[in-house]
Amino acid sequence: MTHIRLTPLAQSLPATVPFVGPETQERSRGRPFAARLGANENVFGPSPRAIAAMAETGHWMYGDPESHTLRMALAAHHGTTPDHIIVGEGIDGLLGYLVRLFVGPGDAVVTSDGAYPTFNYHVAGYGGTLHKVPYVDDHEDPATLFAKAAEVDAKLVYLANPDNPMGSWHTGADLAAAMASLPEGTLLVLDEAYVDTAPDGTALRLPLDDPRIIRFRTFSKAYGMAGARVGYGMGHPDLISAFHKVRNHFGMNRAAQAGAEAALADQSYLSQVLEKIAHSQNQIAQIAIDNGLSPLPSAANFVTIDCGADGAFAKAVLDELVARGIFVRMPFVAPQNRCIRISCGTPSDLAAFAAALPGALEAAKKG
Amino acid sequence: MTHIRLTPLAQSLPATVPFVGPETQERSRGRPFAARLGANENVFGPSPRAIAAMAETGHWMYGDPESHTLRMALAAHHGTTPDHIIVGEGIDGLLGYLVRLFVGPGDAVVTSDGAYPTFNYHVAGYGGTLHKVPYVDDHEDPATLFAKAAEVDAKLVYLANPDNPMGSWHTGADLAAAMASLPEGTLLVLDEAYVDTAPDGTALRLPLDDPRIIRFRTFSKAYGMAGARVGYGMGHPDLISAFHKVRNHFGMNRAAQAGAEAALADQSYLSQVLEKIAHSQNQIAQIAIDNGLSPLPSAANFVTIDCGADGAFAKAVLDELVARGIFVRMPFVAPQNRCIRISCGTPSDLAAFAAALPGALEAAKKG
């Protein structure tokens, strides 16, 4: 293998994946899941207008590398300019570019222990040093995060609001107030993937061009287009323009861009979906209660359920659910790993979950 | 901007783009192009089965991060195993991952002066030192490339076969023979994006798992799915598995994966498209001859036309074509920049080109 000379950094990286996909699990199970409730997808799907826009796209043409019309529409939606917006291949892709721009070997980055693993994957991938702070009362905690950032001179500090996997959230006003303690030299990476399903006032209440922050949004959650891979970042134009130095300029799927634009324009469909998600949240919570478990309050398109014991027990419940054809996931880290996380589903998805849960709990208790 | 602390490398990078998209040009022109013949897209589009597969996809689900069924189908198509195949967001995306895996600051990389600029963009983006060798008789020249690679101890050497922008090619047997002079420690990055339109025997005649080579293919050209962003690499499993350390695991558009699989399965449609492309090549060549210009032989889905003078003249011809609503591009570097490059088009596209060319030439001669 003398021709395969990876960089020392690439050589050192593990061949791990942040998440094992449900298709991989189905292949090892030998049969499909009855309900797909593990990836916080939106089973209600995108606006019919978005589906039509994607179908009508001329697939033979490369997408516009500037995502111009989508950025124009997003700028109008958010009351800003296209220069404040970068569109990319999902938030995952944009987080990769951001980390690449900021983090070299040994650079410090701060996140919460148990927060989004794909961010951590990118930090490791560029040789950064990741510092983790604990959740506070099942919340990612700005004060703890920013104090650690000051201590280690972090270039980036990651915060998801609402949080995944716990579904907890801060108000945008509280978060804005907490920003007073963000240290000089640290950029807040604010992941607002789930903000569309959150109570009004959850989005950060600060100007979009505040140079201390980049905030990310997505069409994968409330807009129901996870398969399309469309995310965007909003921030100061000096920061946004840096993405153009490293991004895959022709990386955006043309149909996906058209679909996102159509989805954004159909806010009445979004409202309907948000109602379905809220209804589904209530159903999941009720199923949990019916089984003697404790649903946590959620601002996201999932409900995290406290199984009432330790991580081993919750893992056993999860495994028993998976064995019964219900794809779900759970937090990675104690004490949050006392929970399982159920994405909102259709009534029939949730009926399958409700049917499987008692047996799964019984088996987990015996195990 | 004290919160925006880019890495020294990111700071040093220019905010250039490898290509300006036709949409950008249309916006600055204030009107659309009459014919889109500049990006080597395939105007004949994908198989109807691929279009249907994309339309039928559940967009709400993330794509399979392993692209398992597509990799299985590609493995069967190429007579290899899925472990020899990496699927990614176009060859552009995969080139980015490859360069990231191999190239750190100061590492040497070799390419031809005037070859694919997006590869160069990635090398610069990771701090590599790019060494360029001239074309030989309008061909990327393996002997020259490999000699330079030996001289500078290159980690990567890039070669497109067929070549873009000249349309020239080597036989797979000649290339295999030339491999004897590939130095130890250098990986050949063989871009076979245009091999599907090339004469039989153009694909490299060496085992797919030869550890000295990675070869790239795409659904953007002959398969007519540039907007979908599906490329793949083939190589030794030890090399292929390295991609999993750095790639955006959930980066693939789900519909695009389904579309690529359907397109691959419809080889009879591909054959029909290849006939249309061949016919279009002949038409472009004839239009060139009718205008006193010299079409170069082409193995790709475009024809490069020698305008018979220097780069300034060819640029004037190109500008005049663009002004007349014909989107075309041209080589960047002398002496190849004596040419303009015309992608295959529909009969009406080429009629528009034929109508515009005499006036464009006349204006360029006057200019």
Automatic annotation (TrEMBL), chains A, B:
Coiled coil: none annotated. Signal peptide: none annotated. Its cofactor is pyridoxal 5'-phosphate. GO terms for molecular function: pyridoxal phosphate binding; transaminase activity. SUPFAM superfamilies: PLP-dependent transferases. It comes from the Bacteria. Keywords: Aminotransferase, Pyridoxal phosphate, Transferase. The keyword Nucleotide-binding does not apply. Gene3D superfamilies: Aspartate Aminotransferase, domain 1, Type I PLP-dependent aspartate aminotransferase-like (Major domain). InterPro entries: Aminotrans_II_pyridoxalP_BS, Aminotransferase_I/II_large, PyrdxlP-dep_Trfase, PyrdxlP-dep_Trfase_major, PyrdxlP-dep_Trfase_small. The keyword Transferase applies. Residues 37-357 form the Aminotransferase class I/classII large domain. PANTHER family: HISTIDINOL-PHOSPHATE AMINOTRANSFERASE (PTHR42885:SF2), HISTIDINOL-PHOSPHATE AMINOTRANSFERASE-RELATED (PTHR42885). Belongs to the class-II pyridoxal-phosphate-dependent aminotransferase family. This is Pyridoxal phosphate-dependent aminotransferase. It comes from Sulfitobacter aestuariivivens. The lineage of its organism: Bacteria, Pseudomonadati, Pseudomonadota, Alphaproteobacteria, Rhodobacterales.
